[in-house]
Amino acid sequence: MSSPSNDYLDGNAAAGELSKVFAVDITTAAGRCAECGTTKCLAEAHLYMHGPGLVARCPACEHVLLRLVNVREHMFLDVRGMIYLRLDTSRSQQGS
Amino acid sequence: MLQVSDWPSHIAGQHVDVRLTAHDGYSAVRSYSIASAPNAEGRVELTVERLPDGEVSPYLTQELAVGDRVELRGPIGGWFVWRSPQTEPIQLIAGGSGIVPLMAMIRSRASVGSTAPFRLLYSVREPGAAFYRDELQAISSRGDSVKLTYAYTRTTPKDWPRPPGRIDASIIAETTWPSKLIPTCYVCGPTSFVEGTAAMLVSCSNCPDKIRTERFGPIGGRK
Fold it and tell me: Looking at residue B45, what DSSP letter applies?
């Protein structure tokens, strides 16, 4: 894995790709970094999209929180960089 | 402007993924912010900036014709959004085409008759480079409406009080909501713009938790 640079987007840019896996928008969920313990919305993660997949890193310590890679007919999802994800179930994902 | 059947409507600030597929099966996906206010008619307006060496934007801006079909995924993203029940002061800060999702928020505010106090600080190269210039002018000239400040980075209009330059701490301090009002801030633009602006908002005592950012970049990013 190459070292992090400033060439990243926000985690919310991953919402479309992650919607292929999850029924709800998990970019609005708070994830706790397994390395430094920072708890932030996944939308606030630093998102790197230059490689074969996408990599979300902790905005505080740059630890890898999530990786999502498509290989032919398979999708690999690695979320071991987070201790947990906290989802808000009080509000539906759509509609204002 | 796209007409989408079965569109579930959207929230101001959300984006869509547009997929284009060539005859040989090669496909490319790009994210674009929705510029239109939420509506029940399935109208989705995208504002696409053409990048000369881009893979998707030249097609969308030059070849796509009325009646053509494109593949959309969305609406996407529940984080960088303004919802009409929000009544707190709203600070919008855009760099270049980063205005697009913020425009959806401004239009949404108008369409639902919200009186939430809005301010927009909009950084552009030169007066002619501003997106939605006339519409923003019309909206900001209404009494209770959105207070608009331009920051020009290269060329200013004649007799402009501030020399051209990037957004700095003084323009943040002078034109954005005082932090004691606890505004929610939405910052959208290129990564370096967002990075610098968000840091200045924090140095002006804004709470980091009230600053929402959306960066875009040349690869797979939002335009």
Answer: -
ipTM of the complex: 0.79
Nearest-CA neighbor of B111 among B139, B74, B137?
B139
Residue whose C-alpha is closest to residue B166's, from B177, B181, B150, B182: B150
Tell me whether residues A6 and B192 touch, CB distance under 8 A: yes
Segments making up each domain of chain B, as ranges:
2-76, 90-216
Taking contacts as CB-CB distances below 8 angstroms, the residues of chain B near A93 are 78
Domain B90-216 belongs in CATH node 3.40.50.80: yes
Structure confidence at residue A34 (pLDDT): 97
pTM: 0.89
Q: Where are the domains of chain A?
A: 9-84
* Encoded tokens for B186: 């939405």
Q: What is the pLDDT of residues B5-45, one digit of tens each?
A: 888 889 999 999 999 888 888 888 888 999 999 988 889 99
DSSP B170: H
Which chain B residues are Cβ-neighbours of A38 within 8 angstroms?
none
What CATH class is the domain B2-76? Answer: mainly beta
